[in-house]
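Figure 6 in text form: structure in, sequence out.
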């Protein structure tokens, strides 16, 4: 059985955090909160989330900067990122994609849409993890058989 998924909510607005936490109440997951961009980077390293719900407008580092840093670091590049933003200008969407986000959702957040996207993203993450485990297993088997030859 798969372990419980970990979700990091990165948002400096307490009301948004409480709403997202309420929406996640029915999801089998561990939740951590980050209150600004630097906190999000620190918690991504210490908590090891499978998915980050990342607000764009935050102090210290904005969501675009956080996303770019996470995706460019091999230790955190495989974390799924769902940017949750009030911004819906085409340029903002392009910036989010360029920064490496896996998906984005506009505020106000629709609960059904949020939960479906989370479900899909966690399923993709599980498949990617399984694919990586199989890739390593095959590589190990090839290495072992190479030593026997």
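Output sequence:
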């Amino acid at each position: 059985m798969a372990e419980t998924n970990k979700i990091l909510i990165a948002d400096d607005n307490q009301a948004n955090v409480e709403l997202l936490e309420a929406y996640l109440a029915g999801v089998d997951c561990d939740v951590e909160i980050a209150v600004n961009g630097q906190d999000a980077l620190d918690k991504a390293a210490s908590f090891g989330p499978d998915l980050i719900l990342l607000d764009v407008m935050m102090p210290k580092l904005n969501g675009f900067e956080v996303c770019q840093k996470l995706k460019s670091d091999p230790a955190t590049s495989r974390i799924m990122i769902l940017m949750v933003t009030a911004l819906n200008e085409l340029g903002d969407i392009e910036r989010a994609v360029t920064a490496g986000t896996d998906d984005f959702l506009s505020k106000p957040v629709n609960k059904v849409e949020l939960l479906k996207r989370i479900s899909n993203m966690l399923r993709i993450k599980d498949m990617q993890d399984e694919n990586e485990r199989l890739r390593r297993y095959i590589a190990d088997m090839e290495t072992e058989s190479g030593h026997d030859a």
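Caption detail: Helices lie at 14-23, 37-47, 63-72, 90-99, 111-148.
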